[in-house]
Amino acid sequence: MEAREHVAPKKPILTPKAIIHQNFGSRACYVVEEVKEAPQTECPGLNIPQMGPCLYRCTLQLPELSVISGTFRKKKDAEQSAAEIAIDKLGICTETIDPTPQEAQESLVSRITFIFSEKFVVCDHPLSGHIRATLWRKGDLCGSIPLSVIAFYDAKLFNLCKCINPEVESNPFLVISYIMRATANLHQFLATSERHLWIRRLSPYPQDIIESLMKEHGSQKCIQVTAVHIPSSVEQSIEAVTLHISSREYYLDIIANELGFEDASNVLISRNLGKASSETRLFFTAPKSYLPDLSSKFPNGKETLYLKGSLNVRASYFAGQDITGDAILASIGYTRKSRDLFYEDVTIRLYYRMLLGKTPGGIYKLSREAMLASELPSRFTSRANWRGSLPRDILCMFCRQHRLSEPLFSFHPIKTTSGLSGSCLKVAESGENVIECVNGFSVTSPKHSDSELFKCEIKLLSRCGDLILLCSPKDCYKKQNDAIQNASLKVLSWLNMCFKSMILPFEQLYETVDNFNIQIYSKNIIRDLLAGQSTHNGQLNGIHCNKFVESIYMNSSYDMLGNIVDSLKIEGPYSGVCPSSGSLPCIRYSVSLAVEGENLKEVIEVCDEFEFEVGVGAVVSYVEEVVMQMSVGQYAYFSTNLLSTELIFAASAGDSVKMLSSLISKKCCMEYEISLIRVAEPPEERMEQALFSPPLSKQRVEFAVQQILESHASTLIDFGCGSGSLLEALLNYPTSLKKMAGVDISQKGLSRAAKVLNSKLVTNSDAGGHLTSIKSVILYEGSITNFGSQLHGFDIGTCLEVIEHMDEDQACLFGDVALSFFRPRILIVSTPNFEYNVVLQKSSPPTQEQEESDEKTLLQSCKFRNHDHKFEWTREQFTQWASDLAARHNYNVEFGGVGGSADVEPGYASQIAVFKRDWKLEDDVLKHADEHHYSIIWEWNSKKE
Ligand code: SAH
Ligand code: MG
């Protein structure tokens, strides 16, 4: 018989990029980025840094669509791949015509003929490897190839079957029946078995071919491969198995033995479940009723083949397709790359890592390589603060894992001058401001008439392109990337919530979509997606469903356990350097599994440097709580109840039997050891610098300078001077000041202030003087709630961002002490405007409805700007405090602020009260019972006179 491959549809001569160019020209924009390889399919050590090869991924942006390629070693491959995906998505016609089902049927016959030809057995096709290996099988089985192998290892054949019946995509086992049918026409050439599912060539291959294959094969070694056994009964645990395959055996027979069969005829094979370069598949038992009825003639090509038998819920969830009976997860097979059998170990740990990687939170955890990473952070603030895979990448990965099309991102650039909707409309109409997102924070800034804002809309589509879910957040961002990441995070957060609430009825989850700006177009697909099932069967019976949900629940209930910290001990000296909201603490930790009373401890995960952002839910809540109580250099020890098995196995390096049995025992707990290595930058400062131009602190200084200039003051006290930023800044301005003093209770702040001022003043005088006329600067240690009698008679007092660091009654006391004892002509007090936190802390501004209905709730959900703040006042609270204080002491008070504007909600970022005394002091007023002398920390006097 002549072996000629029938090439059905002619392949296009143009490359995918060329086709995209034809269609879009310069409107197609390719962006290639460097990436690290996805970790969960590789089985890397959780703690071993990978030095993988440099890989590239390409994002192709077209007017209505943006696609992302897989990762490639070469940039140009990534670009071609992105182009190919886009062509596929857009349905651009690249081929002549799809074959009709009739033509496909014929091509199928010639393809099968080709597969069993002499030419094919020596070529480098994965199937050829199988054919060669089956020649070593004994007796009748010699040369017989399991049908499932032919069905699943030849893409061409698969595509032809898809032309016959598109349902093949969702029910790949249909391919087997089409092959059976095609083979029936080839009975002079091929033998099939009705009882067993195999095909064999009738005439033996020529002797010379056999001989050369023998030589080649003889050089191959015996191999040992670790695989994972997933029993169909959920009561039995997942176990590691070792496949011993000698050079004279067909590997599928060995897998069949492991599943309890004599040979591979009854073994079915799933699609590849790992990364494309691996051969990770599930091998499982063909159920009895699966044998297709060959006598029926498949008249319309619309028949469906159901797998009846005991559904393996864990394996089904894992594979996203129905898997029956016991299953083996192994990474083994023939590839185009080499004629030798390719294999990699699949450990229990890898199994759990892959499982974890199916949920949005799990993907995030894996990308952070840390079990202490939260399921998914609640907020995307900025690229710099986001650790681990970015939300958009996680979403793409999620879609790939769940056999969906790549998500579609579309942008709606919005001109600030024209039709904005929702929140932006409101802000834009109210006049001067638009919402922008600088480094992930939203701020109000003066309107630029030409500025563009972005909204991002995300569509999730099924494999076949049906719309499943649409997420259209109302928020606008100044940067396109912020819009994508935040929209992606919205979708992911909803999906993650669904995964975590697996036990809830779907209808209940469905009610939550509005909060996430999500519309669902196919409830069924979503439900199946969450159930980890492909839609092709729909035959899950009640028992299956319940068991199934249970097993998933067990797999993802980690956060629902509500871990409670037990016997917390913090050791080591207090250094005073503490994390606060928004800062980036870096910890070293180890987590162990401990069996109570038995002195048994197994280290699950050790991490030398783990950095996270405080206050955005980037780390599991109980760890954040503990770290917030620590200062740099301290150690914390505590324990919690057990983590989920999935997480423990995914993290731990050993598949130890001991651990497994420990887990079953109820007397286990997790023990944590954490040390706080460092804390990066105070958050408030960082925020003030990043969001305001000039930085808010500079604006406060400028505000003070203005007052000083107007007042012609010659002496100034800075109450709560901290590290001396105001005093230092004042040296740069030409004011009327002659003498300045700073007071603070913090030794550390004062010594920093002394250092800064010293270097500035010494350097400046060496260089020939400074801008100011300042003759003396003194730093005092003391509490500003006490009267330091050395400081009476000063003209002006400043107290910037200090009162919120004291308890409210102390702040009131300071006010009274300042105005009744110090009695400066002018006192300037600034403090954060709590209402402004809505702008600082929400990724989006409130919408109109929100503003009216739950303005309070929104505000209540805001955190203080700095962990050290004891309170933050609203405008009303501040006004009340300042007015009462002024009235008590016969001062006038005026209000102002910096950052934002008084007329635009929610007012200034920093609110400032300026108290003024318009009466003269009498000389005797400074006699007081409770006089107090502050102690001098540092002093400088000008040598020039
Ligand atoms: N005014 C500075 C520092 C603000 S931080 C600036 O604008 O940069 C707040 C400062 O208030 C800290 O340095 C803290 O030590 C100080 N502080 C808090 N309570 C105090 C008190 N009772 N007496 C003096 N200083 C106090
Ligand atoms: Mg403060």
UniProtKB/TrEMBL annotation:
Keywords: Magnesium, Metal-binding, Methyltransferase, RNA-binding, RNA-mediated gene silencing, S-adenosyl-L-methionine, Transferase. Its EC number is 2.1.1.386. Its cofactor is Mg(2+). GO terms for cellular component: cytoplasm; nucleus. InterPro entries: DSRM_2, Hen1, HEN1_dsRBD2, Hen1_Lam_C, La_HTH, Methyltransf_11, SAM-dependent_MTases_sf. Signal peptide: none annotated. One of its GO terms (biological process) is siRNA processing. Pfam families: dsRBD2, DSRM_2, Hen1_Lam_C, Hen1_LCD, Methyltransf_11. It catalyses: small RNA 3'-end nucleotide + S-adenosyl-L-methionine = small RNA 3'-end 2'-O-methylnucleotide + S-adenosyl-L-homocysteine + H(+). GO terms for molecular function: metal ion binding; O-methyltransferase activity; RNA binding; RNA methyltransferase activity; S-adenosylmethionine-dependent methyltransferase activity; small RNA 2'-O-methyltransferase activity. It is an enzyme of class 2 (transferase). Residues 98-209 form the HTH La-type RNA-binding domain. Belongs to the methyltransferase superfamily. HEN1 family. This is Small RNA 2'-O-methyltransferase. It comes from Glycine max (Soybean).
